[in-house]
Description:
The chain is α/β, with parallel strands linked by helices. It has helices spanning 2-20, 40-49, 84-100, 120-124, 126-141; strands spanning 36-37, 51-54, 58-64, 71-75, 108-114.
Amino acid sequence: xxxxxxxxKNKIACNEMKRNHSLKVSPPLAKETKIISLKSKDFDxxxxxxxxxxxxxxxxxxxxxxxxxPRLGMIVKKSYIKxxxxxxxxxxxxxxxxxxxxxxxxxxxxxxxVNKPKNKEAMDSFKTDLEKQWLHLENLHR
Length: 142
């Protein structure tokens, strides 16, 4: 009896919070800006034909495609970054930075191979270093 009334009170409190505080969620991607991933069969031939640009953070492989949209592939090795949480965070960062630039990469396939971090400070500055690398790549390609 006590547990049931406690569950009801918690549910009411939760509903009030939802009404009073709207959650701030980023808007969903429009259909034309959705990120399309490279499939495993595309990875096999990719490294032989792609141009390579490396930095301390990651190695970018870039190849033209005949499609009307860019595709993104990511490689984050488990042996380099042990924690699944950190690996997924890195993938989210890469995906978000690619999403903001998706219109600049129409007709290209990109693979981002994340290098092994040298120390903890390298992981902390990953986002800013990757941002610099994207800008450098855009200047080379345009």
